[in-house]
Amino acid sequence: MAAGRRDLVRKLLKGIETGDPEAATVVNEAVYIQHNPRTKTGAVGLADLFARLAKTQPKVTIVRAFEDGDIVFAHTDYLFGYAEVGFEVFRFDVDQAVEHWDNLQRAQPPNASGHTMLSGPTEATDLDKTEANRSTIRSFVEEVLIGRQHDKLEQYMDASFIEHNPKLTDGIPSLRAALSATLEDGAPVVQYDRVHKILAEGSFVLSICEGAHDGVHSSLFDLYRLADSKIAEHWDTLDPVAPKSEWKNDNGKF
């Protein structure tokens, strides 16, 4: 039986740790589009990436993996000489990956509520609610995050929702304070400008957004778990977008 796409992504990412040459066969190197600005596109970029990471004695754990049409998105725990938490997104053509996006952040200690950046449920439920949950998160992102209608937080979020952001705590008040915080010039500390993708499988939905943090152009990946049509749990990574002068491909971060 042919391996499922989630298993193929696990094989590819685990290959960073094991050095298994078969891992590279998951990718169609002839057409592979790389959106990590610091990595060359195509076969050359993939080979360079694996060679560079191999020097760090890497450890790779795929904590969660979900499938949405031709896309697999995974939540990962990395050790590349230092600990990182990442989201990896792959678009497939049949049984090979042909496009890749990612978002990585240095791992932080548990937040004041005791949750790490990766702890919590790992399996999607309510598969029949995939499109309804996708629609809920799209509206949440557009209205609350981009539109800054913070008075609607209660409309979308369970009052006792679980927060995995290392700087926040469980419940709506902590999130409201973070979203309302401003810099000296009045600009938001966390600013969402544009949503690029909303990926979903059942109770889990990943939003991929572009914005800024502390005035720095950034990529914001937010993973939500929904229950009874409300946000019950949240994980995220924040990654500054490299200046264009440092890009090794012209595909763009998003």
Short description:
By secondary structure, the protein is of the alpha+beta class.
Q: Show unreliable segments.
A: none
The main sheet comes to:
5 strands, mixed
String of helices and strands: HEHEEEEHHEHEEEE
Number of strands: 10
Estimate the mean pLDDT confidence.
94
Which class do the helix and strand fractions yield?
alpha+beta
Cα radius of gyration in angstroms = 18 Å
Main-sheet strand order equals 1-5-4-3-2
Distance between the termini: 34 Å
Number of contiguous helices: 5
| Percentage of residues in helical conformation | 10-25%
How much of the sequence lies in strands comes to 35-45%
Which of globular, elongated, flat, extended, rod-shaped describes the shape? Answer: globular
Describe the structure.
Helices cover 22% and strands 37% of the residues. The protein is built from five helices and ten strands. A five-stranded mixed sheet has the order 1-5-4-3-2, covered by helices on one side. It has a five-stranded mixed sheet with strand order 6-10-9-8-7.
Chart the SSEs and their pairings.
Blueprint: H1 5-18, E1 33-34, H2 42-54, E2 59-68, E3 71-79, E4 83-93, E5 96-106, H3 130-146, H4 153-156, E6 157-163, H5 172-180, E7 190-201, E8 204-213, E9 216-227, E10 230-240
Parallel strand pairs: 1-5, 6-10
Antiparallel strand pairs: 2-3, 3-4, 4-5, 7-8, 8-9, 9-10
Which terms summarize this structure?
five-stranded mixed sheet, 254 residues, alpha+beta
